[in-house]
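Checklist before submission:
- one chain only
- standard amino acids only
- sequence pasted in full

Submission:
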Amino acid sequence: MTTSTRGAAKTPAVLVLEDGRTFRGRAYGAVGETFGEAVFSTGMTGYQETLTDPSYHRQVVVMTAPHVGNTGVNDEDPESGRIWVSGYVVRDPARVSSNWRAQRSLDEELAAQGVVGISGVDTRALTRHLRERGAMRVGIFSGDAWTGVRDEALLARVKEQPEMTGANLSAEVATKEAYVVPAIGEKKFTVAAVDLGIKGMTPHRMAERGIEVHVLPATATVEDVYAVGPDGVFFSNGPGDPATADGPVAVMQAVLERKTPLFGICFGNQILGRALGFGTYKLKYGHRGINQPVQDRTTGKVEVTAHNHGFAVDAPLDKVSDTPYGRAEVSHVCLNDQVVEGLQLLDQPAFSVQYHPEAAAGPHDAAYLFDRFVSLMEAERA
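Returned file contents:
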């Protein structure tokens, strides 16, 4: 990625998809070039949490909401230490940020972190194209990266980029050193959290429930996990293709063998699926946003949930499956397309969901899942 930040708002820019379709607009954020997988997010709010979610590593995010940036950017809402999206696409950026918590504008933050974006694009047409053709590789070019360069040459550069299928990315976004998030108030439990791209609010939600969270690198071994003396083990969200995550799968299988209470979200759900013997596959355009309807099949309750996943578990919806670790079933399902959104074991304390219960940003409908994890640890201790 090459970037500059001067005169971005007036600089022409172009977005080139790998199937040859192009969209012209104006530079937004940094000026230069960037590449990634083009995906769309349906959230109308919470763009700062989206941008800083490590699960968006190597993805160019198209916002379906037309007006973006009106609440600016602050230092309180990021979910990690940096913006992870490879590029950002908006239709109508706010000219002025207006919120009492705002410390700077969104385009200033994108430029400061070298994130190349484009504005003035018909994001509705772009989103419909991605829904019909599927998520695909994309490039954004502005300034010297576009000046005098033919579209054919830009398209060739897009096609040179690696695809998301087969991408092993969790170690690129996870912490390199273990750290501890202390319990808030009385400490009740210790949890080993394997960081595959964890968001900051996730260990905070556990800390609120009296859990001391030891966040471990994606490369953690089973010995690292049990060295902290965990009452439970957590596997986080993260980017990339779960088919490449052999290391985390092996660690999870060791946890399942010991029957330690286990909870996984997003990438962690896909890891559990693989650990149980199910396959995974790439969705056509994925689920991204904070308004996805999911049914908890154990209660019948329908939740509005926050999603960011391009892969899913291939498990049967209509029966209980036998696995090396006991019986398993699909516990949650997306009501839009019947994609598996959760798994649970019936003979030991382990479950997972394919979405973000930490509610940053997003609805709080799924916060009870952290309480369910606590209940499993309480039952095991009893």
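Reviewer check: The chain is about 20% helix and 35% strand.
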